[in-house]
Amino acid sequence: MQIGIIGLGLMGGSLGLALQEVRARLQIKRILGFDSNPLHAQMALSLGLVEECVDFASIQACEVLFLAIPLDGIVQVLQNLKPTPHSTIIEIGGAKEQIIDAIPPSLRPQVVASHPMCGTEFYGPKAALRGLYQNKIVILVDCQDCAPEHLERAKDIFSAIGMQMVKMGAHEHDQHIALISHLPHVLSYALANVVLSQESPQNILSLAAGGFKDMSRLSKSSPIMWRSVFKQNRKHVLEALNLALTELQHAKDLLENQDWDNLEAWMARANCLQEFM
Amino acid sequence: MQIGIIGLGLMGGSLGLALQEVRARLQIKRILGFDSNPLHAQMALSLGLVEECVDFASIQACEVLFLAIPLDGIVQVLQNLKPTPHSTIIEIGGAKEQIIDAIPPSLRPQVVASHPMCGTEFYGPKAALRGLYQNKIVILVDCQDCAPEHLERAKDIFSAIGMQMVKMGAHEHDQHIALISHLPHVLSYALANVVLSQESPQNILSLAAGGFKDMSRLSKSSPIMWRSVFKQNRKHVLEALNLALTELQHAKDLLENQDWDNLEAWMARANCLQEFM
Asked: Which residues form the Prephenate/arogenate dehydrogenase domain (chains A, B) (predicted)?
């Protein structure tokens, strides 16, 4: 089996590393890569993320094709892809409804829509990490619409690289992920911009401890990637953002009214998170 | 030298552990503890955080007295404290203006106002951690108002337990800390409450990866402790919260208007944080 990875950044590059470790188990002949940025392709090759970089025409011949590019790119590539009739296409975009809607009907059975719940704030080939996918969750979305042989192939690969699979519909996925991933990114970007807009951010930032570091980490994420996530999951992100604005406005009202009992109750309610994770 | 720690939770308990390790260097005879909750005192003792627990009257006889309790408690204790004339009182509250204003003038030269920039989301004696203070920053606030011998004593102790000292005025401290610590807590509490208010939070939370875990960690912090922080730093927390609301409203407008270029620019601006930390 030849596996092709389109997009050799954090996700695609780490996938290349993960697949190399299960080569025997999956009987992988070759791990090929493609990146529209020739510098990234070169870098991925010299970092050993993939074994060979080929052009877009050639990578389509692979039996398994991963799409590990920003969401707008996935939509575009799906329109233009000419895979072999037996190829499995696995896209790993972070929002699903628009991507799935954009799959040409003739291609639909071959496409496995998935979302690996892992990543870091870093991006590009240098951000690739060994073990990124290990013991993480991958959401398989709208599985009923892809052919069993392609779904099985995708499951074999995700299982081999150590992932736990969860099935979900596209709408539910996008709603949940807006809350658990997209909203945290918006909040982190906002926090960073608040501090950076101060007169001497360096004086303030020199005091940062673990709390601020955790809360601002996501604000270092790729604006290009996140632009396309926010674009494609706009409706649900707006819903989540409205909920956050309501909570923050509530906290503000309690502070303004010096309503310390209810502010304490608001925080105690948040403490319940400990029961779940 | 006898050192007394009032409050044997995360901060006071970890301090007990840290002081035990530098006992010889600081010529510490005994590390005593007091906690208004008898169960906490007992727990601190059995965890070896302090060597003996005494009553409030007895702990005041120590040459060095740490106040490691919620901010409202610090204000109260400072009103009632009857230390020896040579005792150094080191309070470690997370907001400074109100505490410093509350120091009785007769006591002022003996009180060192400090803020160690470390902690975790856990609280109580069981949360005490060896090494919590090591290599962390401690802010010494309004040092000009305490007597040199007390300031030197406090510096010797902070230096012995591995802390880096920064001096600052109370107003500047409270402003900076509202941005770097208090606002991140408000955002984290809000995020947790957004998800917990959903119909099936457990389904959503089962998908949580590193991003959400980091962003929600602070929401597990003690509501009692944070109630008093928000109360005492209300003005600056409200300012910081308003800045965050403005940023979030801006992001919302961009999403609503589908202004992807400016949304990308907003995120790219946040990325500049990498230049500082």
From this structure: 1-277
